[in-house]
Design brief:
Elements (H helix, E strand, L loop, with lengths): L2 E5 L2 E4 L4 E8 L7 E7 L6 E6 L5 E3 L7 E6 L4 E6 L8 E8 L3 E3 L3 E6 L1
Parallel strand pairs: 2-11
Antiparallel strand pairs: 1-3, 3-8, 4-5, 4-9, 5-6, 7-8, 9-10, 9-11
Length: 114
């Protein structure tokens, strides 16, 4: 059974930082492509950042230079370091894995106050 468990969300003031974590189980993490998506009410879920099994990263333009995605294969964990947070970063952040199928975590709320 595949499980992706996110943590690290919360309420932070604009300009602050948060680090999200996602622990994966039930997949071959080392060969999985991992990503973070976010969703706000009334809008489609959007890609924030991805990291391939080889460590190649890609970001949506709005977070470039502020967010960093990384992975620790020994811990089956993917991280999203979020700095210089803005109110428009508010949303539910979901961990995503691609490994012989696509899987989602339950989401963690990030709220950035102005």
């Amino acid at each position: 059974q595949v499980q992706l468990v996110e943590s690290g969300g919360g309420l932070v003031q604009a300009g602050g930082s948060l680090r999200l974590s996602c622990v994966a189980s039930g997949i071959s993490f080392r060969v999985a492509h991992m990503g973070w998506y976010r969703q706000v009410p009334g809008k489609q879920r959007e890609l924030v950042a991805v990291i391939t099994s080889g460590g190649v990263t890609r970001y949506v333009d709005s977070v470039k230079g502020r967010f960093t995605i990384s992975r620790d294969n020994a811990k089956n964990t993917v991280y999203l370091q979020m700095n210089s947070l803005k109110p428009e970063d508010t949303g539910v952040y979901y961990c995503h894995a691609e490994n012989w199928g696509a899987y989602w975590g339950q989401g963690t709320q990030v709220t950035v106050s102005s």
